[in-house]
């Protein structure tokens, strides 16, 4: 009798927090699952229990192997019930339990029966379940039914089979490939989704056959695709075909552009977006091709649907990175998006505007952004700060308002990542714009007065130590730095002590005062701070002779001679023992991976995060690397290092590229070798160079690579002597010789015995561009006029038929190896004539300037008028010779 | 290389960001802890926005997330950053409308938990292993709702719309024979 009353009470509680799964517990549910074994199946009850099991799994509860197997076996008993609802739940739980291969057999016959059932729902779902859990051998048994299902009258069944095919293609490609005929029939289906799934599968089957894909796209773009989703797929495939064709050197009109353009008028918005995006991502897209895509995106910008606005502004933001001019038309719509409710849209709009805006609009924009910054999350703020940094680099004259903005937001609340982005931006601006240095440093000083992040404080102190002493009034920074010694934790105190020492060393007039300040630090409570103070006091107190000056300078400002990564590994491997750690044992060879570097280029750390010295692949790195090798130390100063030239095809067993280092009367080839076979260790790796086609060169020495393990690049060197101070050319053929040792992949240990082997590399040439260093001049006209006009050599050349002016100009620049000045290497897209300005220094330190005028006639024949001025007439002649022979 | 649109996950969270139902189709979040952390970030990033009339969208950790809220329920669909957000939005809309049909317009947490089986089936009918299976809400609801109109159940227990759906199904089946 009391029950209704209790129930009422329950209901009342439930209004606060109701859940049919409240207090649910795995053990109890597993007990309940016994109901599956009842001889009389109660569909309703069983469905409920399955739902509970699914709920547990969905909440992240995991079943042990035994529990899962137990549930799976009892669930299979439920196939005796013909209740459709229950069967549907059974399918679902089987997929979730993902039974192991030795358990699957128990349901296959039931599922196969359902696969041929008259009920469409059974057929579709049985296919999906079966394909999810089946093994290769069983698959061949049901293949016949699957092919039938693809062409089933019911679209749901057909889609189920096609989607399953897409999954199976990953594990059993050879079987799925046999279904091509049926899949092709699916593409003609009246059902939108079937068409979509069939197209996806057909493309996936043929993806490695370039010609077949191109044919497929070619036939479908003529318009038999009805489903918007399938149309989106077709657009993706079309872009891929366009890319492939461009890669394989097919020129002329861009194929299928018209198709993409026609999709911009499709009635489904998803197709329009897909097409617009495809067009904006075309390689080397012209502004004429871009215009229609930008126009539809602009319409999206004022759509009431946030997804459309987001999609449009996101795409335009990407376009603005490469084609800012094309996006300027949308600026008005974009500005109204700054106040968009959706902050993601607003942030994208701001950063786009920052990229497309011109110099005059900067101030107005900054005003709008200031209002906007207070109500967005840190992650959006970081994006904005980064956009402002690049804006500042673009418009150096505007640094004042941008710097003010940055210093203002630096004072506001914010997390570490946000603050770091601001500090990085200020540092970049200081580095790039000398005028901004003093105010920027002061902003940073003010920031560390109240900075809660130790990492940022120490980094700023380090930066102050390098830049501060070079300013007009270094003494004004001392107060900020010395305050740190009083107010901060030990790490910051130690950094401040080092910075003070740098000031004292660099600025003679400050030395006595700094010494006094450092004296106070030797009573610090922290060991490191005391040690540093004592050490620097003795350095500063040195008798000032030239020698110690040099030593202390090296000590204070010099960088570690070994790459930090190598140092770290060596220190980790160091076993504390009697023997002291020897820094000379740290390998100096930098693990340079040109490919990976190229990929990473876009994400290069800037600002504080960037290493102060260029990585060893840059000129300075090469210089340091070569001078550390005794054999080459005597060659004198490095004149030029070429960029790496690949000597092997991509994806071969051993990948080798070469860097040509030019000295005054030597040439050193640096072979960067990578072993791409995990089962091999190479030893005594050497390059045998045949210089018979390079008469002026004679080999002087070579340095072999002792060991080349899998995937850790190493360098071998060969050095040649050549006539001093003048260029010498020649062709060299290279052979890689080495000893191969098998490596046991499980233990990583190499066998003792190796086999000698060799590997033919491609030839290498030393050309005139190798003797030319790219040096830019700030004002080309002044430099040009300061050179003797009488030494000018002018000649005209026909460059033959070319794709475009830009291509011809690039060819000439590459041939000469000179630095294009004042952005003249880029050609407006429809220009028929162009002047390109180049500058460089030729071997023997001869300054060279080139003025090249290009013209193109209607037949794309290109003519060039080349005027060369050099400090040495013979060099100007040499330049003409290069072009004449090139 | 797979070029077809891919859905990374579908989430249904309550008004406190707790998971009601979730289905992940990639290994981007390998453990339940990672999944919960993702759900927490998504929820806290979106909870203050107004996604009740229109589908909203945001970017998070190289993913695009479209979402829509109703009562105390939060629906999310996640795709990669290269994905066409309108395709994701059509998946979300399909899910949202199908759930609305299945719950007969009473879309709230309590109703969703009471009919969790339908929600699970709905997920299953929309996406199969990350591939879009169906986006038409009526078709999804019909396929997922199959157990609520058990042919053996007396007709009086079915609602009118279900009865109509059953009738339509019978009709199409007989037409296709």
Automatic annotation (TrEMBL), chain A:
Cite the residue spans of the region called Disordered.
590-613
The answer to keyword Repeat applying to this record is yes
GO term, biological process aspect, one: vesicle-mediated transport
Please provide the record's keywords in A-Z order: Cytoplasm, Cytoplasmic vesicle, ER-Golgi transport, Golgi apparatus, Membrane, Protein transport, Repeat, Transport
Tell me which residues make up the Clathrin/coatomer adaptor adaptin-like N-terminal domain: 26-540
Q: Where in the cell is it found?
A: Cytoplasm; Golgi apparatus membrane; Cytoplasmic vesicle, COPI-coated vesicle membrane
Taxonomically, which superkingdom? Eukaryota
Q: Topology with regard to the membrane?
A: Peripheral membrane protein
Q: Does the keyword Lyase apply?
A: no
Check the UniProt entry and state the signal peptide residues, or none: none
GO terms for cellular component: COPI-coated vesicle membrane; Golgi membrane
Q: Which SUPFAM superfamilies match?
A: ARM repeat, Clathrin adaptor appendage domain, Subdomain of clathrin and coatomer appendage domain
Q: Where is the composition biased (Basic and acidic residues)?
A: 590-600
Annotated Coatomer gamma subunit appendage Ig-like subdomain domain residues: 622-766
Q: Where is the Coatomer subunit gamma C-terminal domain?
A: 769-883
Q: Where does it primarily localize?
A: cytoplasm
* Family indicated by similarity: Belongs to the COPG family.
Q: What is the protein's quaternary organization?
A: Oligomeric complex that consists of at least the alpha, beta, beta', gamma, delta, epsilon and zeta subunits.
Role description: The coatomer is a cytosolic protein complex that binds to dilysine motifs and reversibly associates with Golgi non-clathrin-coated vesicles, which further mediate biosynthetic protein transport from the ER, via the Golgi up to the trans Golgi network. Coatomer complex is required for budding from Golgi membranes, and is essential for the retrograde Golgi-to-ER transport of dilysine-tagged proteins.
| Protein name per the record | Coatomer subunit gamma
Q: Origin organism of this chain? A: Eruca vesicaria subsp. sativa
UniProtKB/TrEMBL annotation, chain B:
- InterPro entries per UniProt: AP_mu_sigma_su, Coatomer_zeta, Longin-like_dom_sf
Q: Which SUPFAM superfamilies match?
A: SNARE-like
Q: PANTHER family given for it?
A: COATOMER SUBUNIT ZETA, ZETA-COAT PROTEIN
UniProt entry keywords in alphabetical sequence: Cytoplasm, Cytoplasmic vesicle, ER-Golgi transport, Golgi apparatus, Membrane, Protein transport, Transport
Chief subcellular location: cytoplasm
- Claim: Ubl conjugation is one of the keywords in the record: no
Q: Where is the AP complex mu/sigma subunit domain?
A: 7-142
Q: From the UniProt record, list the coiled-coil ranges.
A: none
Where, per UniProt, does this protein localize? Cytoplasm; Golgi apparatus membrane; Cytoplasmic vesicle, COPI-coated vesicle membrane
Q: Which Gene3D superfamilies match?
A: 3.30.450.60
Q: Per the UniProt entry, what species is this protein from, by scientific name?
A: Eruca vesicaria subsp. sativa (Garden rocket)
Q: What's the protein here called?
A: Coatomer subunit zeta
């Amino acid at each position: 009798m009391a029950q209704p009353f209790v129930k009422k009470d329950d209901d009342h509680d439930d209004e606060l927090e109701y859940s049919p799964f409240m207090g649910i517990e795995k053990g109890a549910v597993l007990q309940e699952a016994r109901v599956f074994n009842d001889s009389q199946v109660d569909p309703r009850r069983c469905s409920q229990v399955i739902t509970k099991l699914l709920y547990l799994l969905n909440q992240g509860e995991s079943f042990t192997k035994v529990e899962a197997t137990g549930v799976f076996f009892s669930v299979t008993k439920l196939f005796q019930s013909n209740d459709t609802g229950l069967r549907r739940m059974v399918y679902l739980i089987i997929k979730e339990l993902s039974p192991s291969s030795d358990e699957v057999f128990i349901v296959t016959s039931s599922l196969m029966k359902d696969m041929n059932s008259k009920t469409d729902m059974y057929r579709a779902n049985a296919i999906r379940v079966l394909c999810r859990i089946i093994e290769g051998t069983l698959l061949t048994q049901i293949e016949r039914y699957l092919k039938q299902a693809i062409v089933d009258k019911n679209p749901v069944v057909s889609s189920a089979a096609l989607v399953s095919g897409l999954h199976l293609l990953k594990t059993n490609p050879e079987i799925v490939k046999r279904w091509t005929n049926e899949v092709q029939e699916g593409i003609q289906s009246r059902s939108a989704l079937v068409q979509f799934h069939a197209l996806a599968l057909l493309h996936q089957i043929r993806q490695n056959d370039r010609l077949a894909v191109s044919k497929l796209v070619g036939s479908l773009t003529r318009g038999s695709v009805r489903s918007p989703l399938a149309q989106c797929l077709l657009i993706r495939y079309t872009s891929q075909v366009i890319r492939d064709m461009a890669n394989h050197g097919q020129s002329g009109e861009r194929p299928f552009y018209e198709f993409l353009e026609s999709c911009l008028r499709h009635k489904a918005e998803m197709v329009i977006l897909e097409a617009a995006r495809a067009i904006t991502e075309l390689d080397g897209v012209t502004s004429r091709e871009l215009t229609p895509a930008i126009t539809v995106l602009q319409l999206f910008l004022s759509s009431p649907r946030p997804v459309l606005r987001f999609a449009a502004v996101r795409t335009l933001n990407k376009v603005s990175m490469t084609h800012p001019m094309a996006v300027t038309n949308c600026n008005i719509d974009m500005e109204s998006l700054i106040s968009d409710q959706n902050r993601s849209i607003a942030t994208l709009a701001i950063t786009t505007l920052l990229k497309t805006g011109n110099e005059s609009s900067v101030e107005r924009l900054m005003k709008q952004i200031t209002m906007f910054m207070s109500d967005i999350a840190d992650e959006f703020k970081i994006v904005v700060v980064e956009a402002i940094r690049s804006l500042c680099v673009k418009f150096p004259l505007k640094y004042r308002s941008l710097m003010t903005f940055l210093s203002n937001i630096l004072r506001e609340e914010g997390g570490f990542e946000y603050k770091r982005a601001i500090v990085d931006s200020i540092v970049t601006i200081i580095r790039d714009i000398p005028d901004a240095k003093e105010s920027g440093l002061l902003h940073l000083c003010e920031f560390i007065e109240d900075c809660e992040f130790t990492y940022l404080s120490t980094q700023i102190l380090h930066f102050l130590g390098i830049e501060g002493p070079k300013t007009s009034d270094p003494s004004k920074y001392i107060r900020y730095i010395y305050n740190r010694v009083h107010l901060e934790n030990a790490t910051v105190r130690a950094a401040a002590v080092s910075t003070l020492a740098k000031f004292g060393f660099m600025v003679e007039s400050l030395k006595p005062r700094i010494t006094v300040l450092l004296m106070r630090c030797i009573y610090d409570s922290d060991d490191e701070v005391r040690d540093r103070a004592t050490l620097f006091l003795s350095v500063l107190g040195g008798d000032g002779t030239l020698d110690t000056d040099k030593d202390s300078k090296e000590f204070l400002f010099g960088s570690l001679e070994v790459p930090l990564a190598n140092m770290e590994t060596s220190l980790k491997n160091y076993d504390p023992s009697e023997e002291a750690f020897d820094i000379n044992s740290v390998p100096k060879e930098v693990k340079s991976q040109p490919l990976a570097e190229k990929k990473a280029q876009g994400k290069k750390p800037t600002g504080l995060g960037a290493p102060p010295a260029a990585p060893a692949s840059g000129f300075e790195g090469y210089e340091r690397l070569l001078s550390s090798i005794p054999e080459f130390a005597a060659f004198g100063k490095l004149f030029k290092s070429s960029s790496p030239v690949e000597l092997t095809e991509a994806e071969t067993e051993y990948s080798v590229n070469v860097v040509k280092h030019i000295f005054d009367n030597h040439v050193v080839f640096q072979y960067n070798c990578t072993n791409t076979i995990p089962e091999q260790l190479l030893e005594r790796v050497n390059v045998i160079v045949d210089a018979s086609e390079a008469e002026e060169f004679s080999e002087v020495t070579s340095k072999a690579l002792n060991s080349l393990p899998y995937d850790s690049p190493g360098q071998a060197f060969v050095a040649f002597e050549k006539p001093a101070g003048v260029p010498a050319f020649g062709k060299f053929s290279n052979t890689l010789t080495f000893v191969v040792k098998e490596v046991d992949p499980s233990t990583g240990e190499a066998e003792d015995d190796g086999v000698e082997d060799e590997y033919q590399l491609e030839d290498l040439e030393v050309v005139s561009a190798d003797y030319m260093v790219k040096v830019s001049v700030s004002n080309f006209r002044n430099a040009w006029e300061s050179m003797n006009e009488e030494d000018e050599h002018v000649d005209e050349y026909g460059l033959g038929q070319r794709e475009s002016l830009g291509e011809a100009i690039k060819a000439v620049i590459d041939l000469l190896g000179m630095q294009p000045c004042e952005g003249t290497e880029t050609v407006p897209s429809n220009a028929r004539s162009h002047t390109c300005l180049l500058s460089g220094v030729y071997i023997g330190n001869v300054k060279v300037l080139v003025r090249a005028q290009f013209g193109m006639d209607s037949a794309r024949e290109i003519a060039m008028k080349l005027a060369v001025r050099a400090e040495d007439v013979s060099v100007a002649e040499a330049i003409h010779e290069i072009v004449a022979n090139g | 290389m797979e070029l077809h649109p891919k859905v990374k996950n579908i989430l249904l969270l309550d008004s406190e960001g707790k998971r009601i139902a979730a289905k992940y189709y990639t290994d981007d979040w390998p453990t339940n802890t990672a999944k919960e952390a993702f759900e927490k970030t998504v929820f806290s990033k979106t909870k203050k926005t107004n996604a009740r009339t229109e589908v909203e969208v945001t970017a998070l950790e190289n993913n695009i997330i479209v979402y829509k809220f109703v009562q105390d329920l939060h629906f999310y669909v996640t795709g990669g950053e290269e994905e066409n957000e309108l395709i994701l939005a059509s998946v979300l809309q399909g899910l949202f409308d199908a759930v609305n049909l299945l719950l007969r317009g009473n879309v709230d947490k309590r109703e969703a938990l009471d009919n969790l089986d339908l929600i699970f089936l709905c997920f299953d009918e929309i996406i199969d292993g990350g591939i879009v299976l169906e986006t038409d809400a009526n078709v999804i609801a019909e396929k997922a709702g199959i157990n609520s109109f058990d042919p053996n159940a007396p007709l009086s227990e079915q609602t009118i719309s279900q009865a109509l759906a059953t009738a339509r199904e019978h009709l199409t089946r007989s037409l296709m024979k």
